[in-house]
Structure formats: structure tokens, C-alpha cells
Amino acid sequence: MSPASKPRRRLIVDGMNVIGSRPDGWWRDPDAAVRRLVDSLRSHASSTGEDVTVVFDRGPPGMRAGRHGPIRVGFARRSGPNAADRDIVDRVERDLDPGSLVVVTSDRELARQVRALGTQVEPAGRFRERLERS
Known about the structure:
By secondary structure, the protein is an alpha/beta fold. The chain has five helices and six strands. The protein has helices spanning 15-19, 30-48, 83-94, 108-116, 124-133; strands spanning 10-14, 51-56, 66-68, 71-75, 101-104, 120-122.
């Protein structure tokens, strides 16, 4: 397969897991941390061509789910700790080609569940380093 015909990587990002992968004070203003990650993911998707969906436990005021430039942003339909995990598993279960997905998380239980569905996993810390380089 030539590089031009290589399929785009499809990522589903556990947003709070990526934010929490670095103790940079994000907890003082989690809404700003969500906005920063969305901005970084938009830049990353634009420069790499990766198909990126990010799912958060909840959204900051004024931010809506849906398309944000080249990425999709989703918010958990349930509340509570790790609320986005079930939504991520649901997305993988509904996907027609789960083997082509990469879920970005360091949550062991979420990683176990999506791997059982045939999906690859990239650790959140490694992805965040890659994100900061792009």
C-alpha cells in the first residue's frame, strides 16, 4: 500500500485521561483544560490527517458536542467518575471496523474492554507527548 493510499488513523481519545496524564495543575480549572485539549487535538488532526474523536466526562459551559473543526467532541451521557468510558465502549461496539480504531487511554479497565472488541490502545501519556510534538 502506498503512503498516499494508507488509511487515516482513527482515534477515540479518553479526554480526561489524557488531561490527567500530566500533573500540570489542570484540576484548578478543568474547563480550561478541556478547552486546551480540544485546541491541541484540532491542531494535531489538521497536521497529521488523523480522524480524531475525543470523549469527556462532561463539557465546559458553552462547549457543545459535535464537530469542532477537523475533530469530533463528545460528552458522556451519564454522570460520575469515568462516565466517558461507557460511551467510548459503546462507540467501539457500534463501529463497523473496530480493528481500525485506536483508543487513547491509560485506564486499565477501559483498555481491557476495547481490546476485547478488537481495538488497539495507545497509552495516554505517550499520546500526549506525541500531541505536544505535533
